[in-house]
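sorry for the late reply, my laptop died twice this morning and i had to redo everyting from scratch. anyway the thing you sent over, i finally got around to it. pasting the sequence first so we're on the same page, its 330 residues, then the predicted structure underneath. double check i copied it right bc i was rushing
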Amino acid sequence: MTILGHKSVKLENSIIETAKGAQDDLFEFAEYDESSAEKAGYSNYSYWKSTLQAFLHNKLALILLGVILFILLFTCIQPFLPGQIDPNLVNNDVSGMQISNHKPDSKFWFGTNSIGQDLWSRVWAGTRTSITIGFLVALIEAIVGITVGVLWGYVRKLDFIFTEIYNVLDNIPSTIVLILFSYVMKPSVISLIIGMSLTRWIGMARFIRNQILIIRDRDYNLASRCLGTPTRRIVIKNLLPYLVSVIMLRMALAIPEAIGSEVFITYIGLGLPVEIPSLGNLITTGRNLLASAALRYQLIFPTVVLSIVTISFYIIGNAFADAADPKNHV
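ok and here's the structure:
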């Protein structure tokens, strides 16, 4: 029995070695190929094409998008149009007196203010300034907030550090930060943008972090990690596309919020100087004249432009967020 046992063991080992040799001949290790790591079956589905098709079905959003594009274009070319008056020029009549509080007419389409400056030019110069501030603040908020939020939610080792930073900064009222920064820095567009951006990214970062935590360990992300996909590719290809809709919505809302903050800071006397026209300056000046019915036009015109801009961005942002949601794609 012992001899037979030894023979059977030798035979079994011989069979295993033969099988291993056959496997070595049939199989070989494949090198990692980033372009082929997650290749699946062919599909003619295009995320951005489907997003555009869904957005084009929203007629109201398309109309408001056209309005916003027209306003942006007009604010850029308005100073170069014929017959335009410098927004800081004090207009005088033939006798040398200031044409102050002049009602709208064929020459001064929006009238003049208390020192004879053309409100038509000041409204569009102020719109240009406020939209620039809104865009830059929203861009900084998006870049910093998304970067910090992705690292905060995806890299577990950084969770404690970012959580403590968030707890400290979030307990400082943003209004206090803006007021202190306005006292320290010389009032200007750059200082106002920096002051708004110091803490505004915190909300975006926490929001992105919470969304990343929800989808970080889903099956397709686990499969990507098992396939050896680099973290950078997982973030760009798997995580951020899922968040495009909510990111665009928050960015669209960040622009009118930044413009509203500029109006508030100017209202409390810490905004831009009067020689830099902005919607905040114009609305603050017009609000002081609200009691006079003959001078209310100085508040109405900048308020109407501000309302059109903020409402349009809000509706367009919501429409694009719905269109970018893959659940709404066919």
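The two ends are 71 Å apart (CA to CA).
thats about all i looked at so far, will dig more tmrw
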